[in-house]
Design a protein that fits this description.
- The chain has helices spanning 2-11, 38-50, 59-71, 99-107, 123-132, 143-156, and strands at 19-24, 28-35, 82-88, 110-116, 134-139.
- With 163 residues, the protein is an alpha/beta fold.
- It has a single domain, classed as Rossmann fold.
- The strands form two sheets. The protein has a three-stranded parallel β-sheet, with helices on both faces.
């Protein structure tokens, strides 16, 4: 599972990284607020995966909730680098489009990476979302590709060094 690989890389980091989980289909929700408890993230993701019922794809709503999760004044760290990873079939079809939310995220200092995985994914749209969000777009054609993509992103995250 790609997210587990991502969390493994973060866990090996000398910093204590906080991660949140946002899911979206017709609507969007912050399923796990920023936390360093990676087991809770994995449990929430597995629960979501096991009960996945499909629906529409409201990518813009997902990005907006990602921004809210990162800027939550109860759990955020104002000095930390902030990154959103959008994983999607890449076919936005409901709610606000994802370009303006990605631009708003970038304006707020949040980098947006995108990962598409379906053959019919609108890779052009997701490349634009990543570009305006100051991130990179990846396309995964297999589970192994998805794992590699998450590892690449985790290894590319900014590092803050202090003395």
């Amino acid at each position: 599972m790609g997210v587990a690989d991502f969390l493994d890389v973060l866990n090996s980091s000398p910093q204590q990284e906080s991660v949140a989980l946002v899911t979206y289909s017709n609507t969007s929700s912050i399923d796990v607020d920023l936390t360093t408890n990676y087991a809770s993230l994995n449990a929430a993701l597995i629960s979501h995966t096991n009960s996945f019922c499909g629906g529409s794809t409201a990518i813009g709503r997902g990005v907006n909730d990602g921004v809210r999760a990162l800027l939550d004044r109860g759990t955020d760290r104002p000095w930390a680098s902030k990154v959103i990873i959008v994983m999607t079939d890449g076919i936005h079809n409901t709610g606000e489009g994802p370009i303006n939310p990605a631009q708003n995220a970038a304006n707020g200092g949040i980098q947006v990476h995108t990962i598409t995985f379906a053959l019919e994914a609108d890779q052009s749209l997701m490349q634009t979302v990543a570009s305006v969000g100051g991130g990179r777009h990846f396309h995964a054609t297999s589970g192994a590709d998805l794992r590699d993509v998450f590892r690449q992103i985790a290894h590319s995250l900014p590092t803050m060094l202090t003395e």
